[in-house]
Amino acid sequence: MSLPTHTSHRTRRTLWRGAALATMTPDRPWGWIDDGAVLAEGERITWVGPARDLPADATADVEHDLGGGVLTPGLIDAHTHLVYGGHRAREFELRLQGASYEQIARAGGGIRSTVAATRAASDDTLRHRAVQRARALLAEGVTALEIKSGYGLSDVDEARCLRIAREVGAATGQTVRTTALAAHALPPEFEGRPDDYIDAVCQWLPGWHAQGLVDAVDGFCESIAFTPAQIARVFTAARALGLPVKLHAEQLSDSGGAALAARFGALSCDHLEYLSDAGVQAMAAAGTVAVLLPGAFYFLRETRVPPVDALRAAGVPIAIATDHNPGSSPTLSPLLMLNMACTLLRLTPEEAFAGMTRHAATALGLGARHGQLTPGRRADLVHWAVDHPNELAYAFGQRPGCRVWLGGQPAGDTHHPYSA
Ligand code: DI6
Ligand code: FE
User: Which one of the ligands is nearest to 302 CA?
Assistant: First the structure.
């Protein structure tokens, strides 16, 4: 009796051709190749170059002849708060009637109202909504994303949100990096006792880590949240577990958070509207990525622009992310963020696109495997129906069609769940 023969011993080879490539390698603008080809074996890219240089013996099990357009690495959303209950449309109304984000937060609204809604929601509801949001990002080309906790603010509820974040990746096939943001706001049961809460967070962290729920640790360093000294204690606990850190820093005021995070070798500092020169230099020295969040800048009608020229001059890599969250950035459109990064923050379209690919990968500690089309990296690809990717930053709100591959496989249903 002979065993059934099958081909799974050899990994599946896939070839993409018939499109321009924006490989996003840093050696030339957009890493551009006019008429390119990409080969993958299984989940990994094995060859990238001009189609005319394709090795003669390059055979493929599956061939995608793209018929024009541009192939790019998958977009990477390096800062999201995707797991939460409820929404804050009412708060949006209040702000339009004159209340400020800070006033609402101090009055127990804001983040705390989302904490109450998140604690009250079932796992199924939280998971269903988070997966919907991740699919909306996927429909605009996002193949990898960070998901923060930060709306549970108790041992049990933070672990629940981190576990659901992991499940989102399993459900959509996207690469998910989880970040524990328990130091986001003070939960009501610790009212008036922020240092006790920070102690509790430091005690909870090893348990979440032991369950494999944490890829990085974040905090909100701000006058309405936690002080640099409190954040430093959380970072020390993270370091003891070997976990990388990152920080919401200098969003509403300059509290020196970025320099503190840089001292802990932070992967990224995020927001940064009020970043000082000293903060820029500290980030440059530490190799920390600046994650700029034009959605929150826009939605809070911030007027102070992050110091983009100083970041550029110091050679700090700049990433762009949605910051999707119910309070300050309820967008699920990475393409709109590309546009806003250009119009509001004055990045070039290429800088913005690098900020959602190459530099976003670095911000998540995924720089070696994601964010560029090169041999050895993961075959997360997006085919866009445009002549040049600068159109993606230019035509705001238009959503040109795209096809997405995750590790060389076509992404499942990428229909926009919020469009008809
Ligand atoms: N900064 C932000 O913009 C979000 N979190 C943070 O630390 C806002 C979160 C919210 O308002 O729910
Ligand atoms: Fe955020």
Answer: 1
